[in-house]
Amino acid sequence: MMDPRWRPTVNEREFIEQALQSDLRVDGRRPFDFRKLKIAFGREDGSAEVELGETRVMGYVTAQLVQPYKDRPNEGTLAIFTEFSPMADPAFEPGRPGEAAIELGRVIDRGLRESRAVDMESLCVVAGKHVWSVRVDLHVLDNEGNLIDAANIAALAALSTFRRPECTVGGDDGQQVTVHDSEVRDPLPLTIHHLPIAVTFAYFGDGNIMVIDPTYKEEAVMGGRMTATINSNGDVCAIQKAGGEGVMSSVIMQCLRIASVKAADITSKIKREVDDYTTEKALQKVKRTPALVAKKVNVPDVTMKESTHSALENQASKAPNDGQQISKGDDDHQNIKRISPLTVDRTVKHKQTSTFVGGPSNW
Fold first, then answer.
1. What distances in angstroms separate CA 126 from CA 98, 101, 335, one per listed residue?
2. Among 63, 108, 143, 209, who pairs with 89 as Cys (CB 3.0-4.6 Å)?
3. Range(s) of the domain holding residue 149
4. C-beta of residue 141 within 8 angstroms of C-beta of residue 150
5. DSSP letters spanning 8-77
6. DSSP assignment letter at 310
7. How many CB atoms within 10 Å of residue 65?
8. What's the CA gap between 101 and 92, in Å, rounded?
9. What does UniProt give as GO cellular component (predicted)?
10. Percent of the chain with pLDDT over 70
11. How confident is the model at residue 244 (pLDDT cuts 50, 70, 90)?
């Protein structure tokens, strides 16, 4: 995985080893300190980019309907694919994946599948005929050491934000599958039981000196490496020892205790970033309707001609019994008040001149 054009000199090797004996590292970290971790998500669900120091890995998740395996007819599938670009490291060659790419994919795949982190039975649509096949593509953008941990975090972050289309089963035989568009029905997230976190240790000297999250130069000097995949509950999901010098069992147990603490911290970081991303996506889907604005329609007032007014007055005088209102006053007097039909007509006309558009609150 190292650039063949760069080899540490004797002085560089001794300097790194002597600094580690004093619990110091070239980049200023302590032996069991991780580099700064950043997680960014793309516009589409199921894409994430992880920066671990200067190491950058991008993960992208896709899914399609396939036929299940005969020995597991009611379970979906999960596959990990890696791509090492020559732009990330001159040692990477284009074309078929090398040993480093195959090893990286196997370590991450073993930690996810062997621990049953993703519920495979929830990916079944029709037993024996249609299941979802989930594919995780990991692209190495920049190699500055410890690709396994960075790629593992990128895969977990991408899987946590992935949404598969919802599908229904119907038809006459009950075997016809209909895949709904995201605009018709909301996609469904994957069922993830826990997050298996990969923590890589590098050994120096006789295996008594170990550090966590080795850098590009430390990987060129180390005598061995071990990756422990463990979740926040302290359950060991997988252990991978990539050759090199032997390590005592007491040292391995110490590494597992340290990895358990680091796994809990990284799990909290991933869940926090995923929750922020989910909240932001939910706010973007909220449709805000504009408030109703009351508008007043101006209706011209009704004007009556003088001739019409005189005609109505004469008609009112000829019919004195129409529209009489009697109010009682003293015992010996009765006051008769006449209401002209013109006055009634004007009152009705006045009520019809004001018209509003809107709800009752606008009156």
1. 37, 34, 93
2. 143
3. 29-288
4. no
5. --HHHHHHHHHHHHTT--TTS--TT-PPPEEEEE-SSTTEEEEEETTEEEEEEEEEEEEPPBTTBTT--E
6. H
7. 18
8. 9
9. cytoplasmic exosome (RNase complex); nuclear exosome (RNase complex)
10. 77
11. confident
Q: CA 74, CA 129: separation in Å to the nearest integer?
A: 9
Q: Using CA of residue 137, residue 143, residue 147, residue 151, what is the dihedral sign? A: negative
The answer to whether residue 359 is domain-embedded is no
In a domain, 348, yes or no: no
Single-letter code of the amino acid located at 295: K
Domain count, the chain: 1
Distance, CA of 321 to chain centre: 82
Please compute Rg for the chain using Cα positions.
Answer: 39
Instruction: In whole angstroms, give the CA distance from residue 169 to residue 173.
Output: 10
| Closest of 150, 201, 148, 159 to residue 38, by C-alpha | 150
**Model pLDDT for residues 170-216, shown as the tens digit of each residue:** 877 777 888 888 888 888 999 999 999 999 999 987 777 899 999 98
What does the pLDDT read at residue 282?
84
Distance CA(19)–CA(215), nearest Å, equals 14
Q: Is residue 38 part of a domain?
A: yes
CA 116 to chain centre: 22
pLDDT at 317: 52
- Quick check: is 335 in a domain? no
**What CATH number is associated with residue 197?**
3.30.230.70
